[in-house]
Design goal:
single chain; 338 residues; alpha+beta; Uridine Diphospho-n-acetylenolpyruvylglucosamine Reductase, domain 2; Uridine Diphospho-n-acetylenolpyruvylglucosamine Reductase, domain 3; Uridine Diphospho-n-acetylenolpyruvylglucosamine Reductase, domain 1; 3 domains; five-stranded antiparallel β-sheet; four-stranded mixed β-sheet; 29% strand; binds flavin-adenine dinucleotide; binds NADP nicotinamide-adenine-dinucleotide phosphate
Length: 338
Amino acid sequence: MLTVRHDVSLESFNTLRLPAIASHYVELTSESDVEEIVRYAKVNVLPILWLGGGSNLVLSDRIEALVVRIVSQGIRVASQSDDSVVVEVMAGEHWHTFVNHAVALDWFGIENLALIPGTVGAAPVQNIGAYGVEAADVIDSVRCYDLHCRSIVELGQQECLFAYRDSIFKRYPDRYLIISVTFLLLTHFKARLGYSALDEHLALKGIVHPTAKDLFDSVVAVRQSKLPDPNTLPNAGSFFKNPVVPLALFESLLIRFPLMPHFKDAKGVKLAAGWLIDQCGWKGQYLDRVGVHDQQALVLVNHSGGRRRDVDDLSEKIKHDVKAHFGVDLEQEPIAYP
Ligand code: FAD
Ligand code: NAP
């Protein structure tokens, strides 16, 4: 029997701590609840918002929808060989806890993704990435409920249409509920290095050949030193994607800004959005109740009682300044709802 609650505060369920009220709210603990939840939404003519840890969402004050918080738990080894292990993880599992679990069991491939907030079920949505590794690198398949076909489907890695912070799930948010994610992890470790902050931290520790645990610990330490903890300073991580610009624009910018960080990308040249925002003078600035983090300009923070409109105002001003200064369009990374 479904327990739907009304006018529920989502303030503690989103890491920006925006004071959103859900008109209808329910928790999904198991796959067997899905059909009933979907039926309830249809009968009551409500859109559905699937909610994980709320760490990549910008919520409005009032949400006229059935908000379904996914809390299903479970980790199951589906198969194992000499080189790899295939693991199915329920969507409501906490991502970092799963990474910790994998490293402890010598299942390799996700150690660079330590300390990313949120749930396993949301990892495929924006194809989470950090320090040169993406969820797409280790996802084997995603088990979903397809709201168009009203049935369970299993999407293979290719069918998920993964791209930089993007996937079929982000493009069609009304179509799929992710029930579980199956990962293909390795049992032989190969370190993925090349990000200077991580490499420098390992060098400082005197570690030349890092183990997976060394890498995991370094990622955790570097992230804790640079990123605000949402529990003390509410935020949604990087607020903008790093823009990839055409070569011609990049070359003209490099003449004006020779110190501009840049990275080759298959589609052009990737610029560091945080650096662009910092150059516009936004780092550490306040705009009423919200602001830009004083150590990482890519992170917008909610200082005290900020609402969706405050975040939108700040975001628009930053976008405007970056466009005026560099001619570059920034795209918001967290999903605005509605
Ligand atoms: P939510 O915010 O709850 O949801 C995000 C989107 O996914 C929503 O559209 C929601 O409807 C949808 N969704 C959630 N669960 C499901 C489901 N089971 N089925 C279908 N749709 C679903 N991201 C990175 O990529 N790399 C980082 O390094 C990183 N660092 C971060 C650091 C901080 C401090 C913070 C606050 C955020 C960071 N993020 C990062 C962003 C965020 O943590 C990730 O995008 C994460 O995967 C979101 O998980 P969540 O459970 O909180 O999703
Ligand atoms: P950083 O190391 O200061 O680097 C700044 C930017 O430059 C990053 O965004 C990164 O792009 C890019 N970069 C740096 N070294 C690179 C290399 N060797 N090759 C390609 N690109 C390189 O970044 P940070 O802010 O401390 O974050 C560290 C990692 O965690 C990054 O991968 C970042 O994406 C991830 N992170 C993501 C979020 C989020 O909410 N999405 C929040 C915090 C951290 P990429 O972003 O493409 O890697």
